[in-house]
Design brief:
By secondary structure, this protein is mainly alpha-helical. It is 69% helix and 3% strand. It has helices at residues 2-21, 28-51, 61-75, 84-106, 111-131, 162-185, 187-197, 199-204, 209-235, 245-258, 265-281, 287-301, 308-314, 320-326, and strands spanning 141-142, 149-151, 154-157, 237-238. A two-stranded antiparallel sheet has the order 1-4. A two-stranded antiparallel ribbon has the order 2-3. The longest helix has 27 residues, at 209-235. It is globular. The two termini are 38 Å apart.
């Protein structure tokens, strides 16, 4: 057990080292793609706090993702860069506030009704920006400058450089992973898991289920807003499509593909899904069909997520089937033949 844990830590350190060193040998295009993967992975990990650990399937997280991008667009001056110290807290705060309002109402329902209510709230925000003239209406609006990271007149980071932007996004993703690990391992995380496994028993033990789920929903919405803020900054454009249900569905596919009830599984799912799209799009015009077939195959082969492959490689003792495969055959004695 100790050897498996040590191996897992060494692999994690090696992956982080490779990620940090990526800008030194990757072209700008691939740096931008890696930044996009990290941001979508952060969105998927945020969603997984509610779906995988809380047992609540939400279809409105794209609303928090897109809302933060719109806050950046609306608070940015037209001819200069906006201060990150003002726009980032405003964007994340707006996403958290929206999650608080939507969660307070949606969490009074259960099952399919919760899914439909979150979908309805997400679509309400989508059509608010689509059908009004706020920030360009259905055409969206541009963000001409990335946020300015400076103290007074002293610039600290130049986010216009793809390398710097990637490192900032990587740092935020690692911080998000650390935060989620702390949450799921804390008494709060155990209570959230208890509400998923057996809500009646958890309620009978005195757990405030509604408040626990609402707190998880707000934290999840804030992380989704953090991802959406930097996604809008990266592409310099926001549109109602960022709030559409298909973005929530894509994040949900990443969660299922990578592995629910694991913190980093959705990030792996984002890397697989977006890497697969990038490869297939350049190979065939029917890439959507192939992508769907491959995803179906992966989900059927690994119902617990592709991250299960890492667990199987690093902790084979945890999988009885692998133990049986590795166990040498014992020859029968002649008397028992």
């Amino acid at each position: 057990m100790a050897r498996g844990a040590l191996t897992s830590r060494l692999v994690a350190v090696a992956l982080v080292a490779v990620a940090v060193a990526l800008p030194f040998f990757a072209a700008t295009y691939y740096l931008q793609l890696a930044s996009k993967v990290l941001l979508m992975g952060l969105l998927a990990m945020a969603l997984n706090l509610v779906v995988g650990f809380g047992g609540l399937v939400s279809l409105c997280h794209a609303a928090f993702f897109g809302l933060a991008g719109y806050v950046l667009a609306l608070t940015s001056p037209p001819y200069e860069a906006a201060s990150i110290w003002i726009t980032l807290p405003a964007a994340v705060g707006a996403a958290a506030l929206a999650a608080l309002v939507i969660g307070a109402l949606s969490l009074r329902t259960r099952g399919i009704y919760f899914i439909m209510v979150t979908l309805a709230f997400g679509e309400m925000l989508f059509f608010f920006f689509h059908d009004t003239r706020v920030a360009g209406g259905s055409d969206g609006t541009f963000i001409y400058f990335k946020p300015l990271v400076a103290i007074g007149s002293l610039p600290l980071l130049d986010l216009e450089k793809a390398r710097t932007f990637y490192w900032v996004v990587l740092g935020l993703t690692l911080a998000g992973i650390a935060l989620l690990v702390v949450i799921v391992r804390s008494p709060f995380g155990h209570a959230l898991a208890a509400s998923r496994v057996n809500e009646r028993r958890a309620r009978s033990l005195g757990f405030p289920i509604y408040r626990i789920r609402l707190a998880a929903f707000v934290i999840s919405g804030a992380l989704a807003g953090l991802s959406g803020y930097f996604a809008a900054a990266q592409f310099g454009y926001v549109a109602p499509q960022m709030l559409g249900w298909h973005v929530s569905a894509t994040a949900l596919v990443m969660v299922v593909l990578g592995g629910m009830r694991t913190v980093t599984g959705p990030l792996l799912g984002a890397a697989i899904l977006m890497g697969l799209e990038e490869f297939l799009r350049a190979s065939t015009e029917h890439w959507k069909l192939l992508e769907g077939l491959i995803i179906i195959g992966l989900v059927l082969a690994f119902p617990d997520g592709v991250r299960q492959l890492f667990d199987m490689a690093l902790k084979p003792h945890a999988f009885p089937a692998l133990r049986r495969m590795r166990r040498p055959a014992v020859p029968r004695e002649a008397g028992n033949a």
